[in-house]
């Protein structure tokens, strides 16, 4: 059962940051459509 869910997510296209266009290495769904750099300007 779980394998189907894993396959589903594997087949999803890579997300791209709406700010800079970088591909987002998705590990945290709550980040939406921006990469770490664009989400956390305070970390720079
Ligand atoms: Zn970005």
UniProtKB/TrEMBL annotation:
Domain of life: Bacteria
Pfam families with a match to the protein in the record: YhfH
InterPro entries: YhfH-like
Protein name in UniProt: YhfH family protein
Naturally occurring in which organism (per UniProt): Mesobacillus maritimus
């Amino acid at each position: 059962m779980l394998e189907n869910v894993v396959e589903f997510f594997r087949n999803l296209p890579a997300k791209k940051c709406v700010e800079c266009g970088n591909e987002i290495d998705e590990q945290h769904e709550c980040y939406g459509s921006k990469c770490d750099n664009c989400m956390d300007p305070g970390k720079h």
